[in-house]
Write a structure and sequence with these properties.
Length: 279
C-alpha cells in the first residue's frame, strides 16, 4: 500500500467518524433528555442527567399512559409488518415476470413502476385520500394496500436489476426436473433474492414505520400510529408541553426500527457483494 493510499484511507476514516458523530449526537441528546425533568431539559439540555434532574420513571410511564403508546405500537406493527411482507412477495414476483418476459408490455410495465418513483406524493395525496375514503381503505388493512402501491416502484426496480443478473439456467434446470412456475419462483428464485429482499424490507420498513403524512391523511386519529400519537402528545393542551415524556416516547419509537436495521445490516452488505460478482 502506497503512502498516498494510506493518507486517503486516514482522511476517509476521519471523515466517516465525523459524520457518525454528527448523526449520533441528536440521538444521544434525545436519550439523555428522556431521563430528565422538563425544567432541566429547557435549562440544561446538553447536561447529563444526575440525581437532581433524573425523572425517567415519570417520563416513560406517564408518556406510555397519556399517549396510548401500546395501542399505537400495535397499529404501527401491524401496518409495517403486513405492508413489508406484501411488498416483498408481490414486487419480487412482478420483477421476475418483467425480467424474464421480454415484450413491449412488460417493458412498459417496468417503466411505469420506475415513473411512479419520481411522482411527488403531494401531487396525488388529496386524490388518494378521497379514493381511499370512498373505497373504505381508511383502516389499518387498507393502509397495507396503499403502502403496497407507493412502495412498489422502488422495490420492483431493485428486484429487476438483481434478477437480470441471475443465470436463467437455474430456472431451466428446475423446469426440466418438473417444477412449475410457482415452484421455480419460491424454491429457486426467491431464495437467491434473499439479500435484495432483506434490503427492500429494511428500506420500506423504515419508511412505513416513520411515516406520518399518509396515515394522518387516511386514517387520522381513529387508528393512531406511533408518529401520530407522539405528535399529538407533543402538542399538549392549553400550550403545555411535556418535553420529558415526549423525548421518552421518541426513544421508544426509534428502538424497534434500529434493532430491525442492525439485525438486517449484514444481509445488506452480503447483497451488495453478491450483486457485484454475479453475471
Amino acid at each position: 500500500m502506497s503512502d498516498r493510499t494510506k493518507v486517503f484511507n486516514i482522511i476517509g476514516f476521519i471523515g466517516l467518524a465525523v459524520l457518525s458523530v454528527i448523526y449520533l449526537v441528536p440521538l444521544a441528546l434525545i436519550l439523555m433528555n428522556s431521563l430528565k425533568g422538563n425544567l432541566f431539559i429547557t435549562q440544561t439540555p446538553f447536561a447529563l442527567p444526575n440525581a437532581e434532574s433524573f425523572d425517567a420513571t415519570d417520563n416513560y410511564s406517564g408518556g406510555l399512559q397519556r399517549t396510548g403508546f401500546v395501542q399505537a405500537l400495535g397499529y404501527s406493527l401491524f401496518i409495517t409488518v403486513a405492508s413489508v411482507l406484501v411488498i416483498v412477495v408481490l414486487t419480487s414476483m412482478t420483477a421476475w415476470y418483467i425480467a424474464r418476459v421480454n415484450t413491449w408490455y412488460s417493458n412498459l410495465l417496468y417503466y411505469l413502476f420506475v415513473f411512479s418513483m419520481v411522482v411527488p406524493f403531494q401531487m396525488v395525496m388529496f386524490t388518494m385520500s378521497f379514493v381511499a375514503n370512498r373505497t373504505h381503505l381508511d383502516n389499518p388493512l387498507g393502509m397495507v394496500v396503499l403502502y403496497t402501491g407507493f412502495g412498489a416502484g422502488l422495490s420492483v426496480f431493485m428486484f429487476v436489476g438483481f434478477i437480470r443478473s441471475i443465470p436463467i439456467s437455474l430456472e431451466e434446470a428446475a423446469v426440466i426436473d418438473g417444477a412449475n412456475s410457482w415452484k421455480v419462483f419460491f424454491h429457486v428464485i426467491f431464495p437467491v433474492l434473499r439479500p435484495t429482499a432483506i434490503t427492500v424490507a429494511i428500506l420500506n420498513a423504515m419508511w412505513i414505520w416513520n411515516d406520518y403524512l399518509l396515515p394522518y391523511l387516511v386514517i387520522g386519529t381513529d387508528y393512531k400510529t406511533i408518529p401520530i400519537a407522539v405528535q399529538q402528545y407533543m402538542t399538549g393542551s392549553y400550550g403545555e408541553k411535556d418535553m420529558g415524556g415526549f423525548m421518552a416516547m421518541l426513544v421508544l419509537s426509534i428502538v424497534p426500527i434500529i434493532v430491525f436495521y442492525l439485525l438486517g445490516q449484514r444481509h445488506i452488505i452480503k447483497g451488495v457483494a453478491a450483486g457485484a460478482v454475479k453475471g
